[in-house]
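Project channel, design review

CF: Before we commit to the Halopseudomonas sabulinigri constructs, I'd like one complete example in the thread so the newer folks can see what an input/output pair looks like. Taking Phosphatidylglycerol--prolipoprotein diacylglyceryl transferase.
RD: sounds good, go ahead.
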Amino acid sequence: MLTYPNIDPVAVSLGPLQIHWYGLMYLIGIGGAWWLAKRRLPDYFPEWNKETLSDLVFWVALGVIAGGRLGYVLFYDLAAYIDNPILILEIWKGGMSFHGGLLGVLLAVLWFSHKQQVAFFRLMDFIAPLVPIGLGAGRIGNFINAELWGKATDLPWAMVFPTDPDQLARHPSQLYQFALEGVALFTILWIYSSKPRPTMSVSGLFAICYGIFRFAVEFVRVPDEQLGYLAFGWLTMGQLLCIPMILLGAWMMALAYRREGRLA
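CF: and here is what came back for Phosphatidylglycerol--prolipoprotein diacylglyceryl transferase:
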């Protein structure tokens, strides 16, 4: 069994001001995506200047934060937030939904693509390989917060999390998700998108891979206490939200390559 490092969730404390690692992970994710976007910009949008890219990053980041928080409220714990709405603002304690963040990003990109008069999926294909940076950083934030841990196991890399009332050795599922949704997904998308691909195929591959990775890890991750298992006694909310994502991604890739065949 490995020893959990027990990192203080508060990175910096200046009197009443506290800066949490969870929030810093979002800044790292956004900053890293911004830096790589600058490298990709000449291949996708050579006509854009730095200010245009900065505007895109701002709106996408806003979509991630607002959509992620509202998605968690709606999908995972609506009753609690209705009872105490002020909790919605306490994002440093965790409680962000990837699927809600994705919807927020889609709305932000839809608006921005209309404003810049560029094709929606061309812009999404530009953004998709950058997203795993933020996903990976977010999972490290979950690990530092000692939240979203996995089921009990006797594997040699199991950990006992300080937030676990039962103090059982558990799967460090946050690190599994960091490895899959962060490192593996970034590698797959970066390599795939390094060559010209049909419009919409990069976005489709993102949806397929994320959906499969998340669906798989949910088998060893403890479901949200207020929800439990929702279907067949073993499917979680995360898995239910990933099923249409995988199917949509497969349809998008098939359509992208079929269109390319018609154009060739």
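RD: helpful, thanks. The longest strand covers residues 10-14.
CF: The chain has nine helices and four strands.
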